[in-house]
Amino acid sequence: DAVSIMRGKVGSKIKLRVSRNENENLNIEIVRAIIELKSVKSRLEDNIGYIRVSSFNQKVDREIINAINSFKKEKKQKIIGYTLDLRNNPGGLLDQAVNVTDIFLKKGEIVSTRGRNKSDGNRFSAVKSDLIDGLPLIVLINQGSASASEIAAGALQDHKRAIIMGTKS
Question: Cα-flanking dihedrals φ and ψ of residue 30, to 5°?
Answer without folding.
Answer: -125, 160
